Amino acid sequence: MSLTRRHVLASVAAGGAGALTGTGTAALLGDTETGRNSFTTGLVDLQVEYWLVDGPGAVGGIDPSDPDGVVDGPRIDVPVETLDDDEPRGSLLVRFALPQPEGGVNNPASLWLRTACPEPDPLAEFLELRLSYATAEGTVDTTIAAGSLREVADQFRAGVRLDPANATDENGCLTDELFVLVEYDLGLYVGEGTTSLPLYVAATQCRNADQTANPFPAVGETACPPGYVCDCCWAIGKVEIDDGGFTVGETYEFTEGIVDYGLYVTDTDGDDGVAFELVATDGGVAPPLCEARVKGGRNEEVYVRRADTYGTTTDSLDGNTDGLVYTPGNLSNGRGYGISYVLVKVCAPEVGRDCPEDLAESANSGDDRDRGKGRGR
């Protein structure tokens, strides 16, 4: 049976594993670090305000004269309502505007955003984040960045210039106001916790200056450290396949398990071998593979995650052959059976002493005779 994300999260919570549960608020766009507000000269004043909204289409209901909050200083620190299995997603609209001088005109400015790495934590890996240019009426123009919170932090860590065509001049300089919609979703996160995305803003004058000069200090090349844990090997879905096998370039949504996830096939070897990537078919974040079970004939071949490896493709599994995973061999003729299904399990954190309940079932439950051995092709 396929389940919606919300139904899955609710059933997981009922089993004792909530999703960012608690009272009060969690600081998504908050700062847990200090000493990061050092900028170059040439900065200009910038007004930053925000509204907590319900997503695209609801933005048009905001009162431009009555924001939920005003940012004071270069750090954007926005309270975000608690997320849980009943409310797994939320969004906010941020307006950047140049002060209107009395009796004068605005001086165009380059607008820059920068992040800092979140604390290594599973929530930073599973929390799906999207930043988009938007209008005050709720129309989303283009996506600025999307991915897990850690992935977005990596993209913005050195500083990114914002220059949408609907709010900037021919030189990419802000002349009036700019709206950015921030959307966040718990995705497949299971557990309790808080995280943050430190976000900093700077505006530099465009006149008599290099509009493309980054006002933020240089950062090191080291990427934000991952925060995955693999306490639990959680079966989230199965793809059953008819005779003929998989086709390269096709995405196969789960026939059993959670909706909005599936397998994107990158390679095949006859009808008994396949290489794939676990993907979120709605554009969200896919968690790392913990195990893949490939059934052919009566048995399964079981491929487990390589130690200290977190990946969404089959080349991260022990026993793969050039990324391919196979069914068990047919002892009578040495060839493999055609694939009847692929079941995937992903890494998930343990909450207390509980792991989430499996959402797809193996025909060989409890039979690990071939665990991680591979076919050796």
UniProtKB/TrEMBL annotation:
Spans annotated as Disordered: 355-377
Source superkingdom: Archaea
InterPro entries hit by this protein: TAT_signal
Biased composition (Basic and acidic residues): 366-377
Protein name: SipW-cognate class signal peptide
Organism encoding this protein: Halorientalis pallida
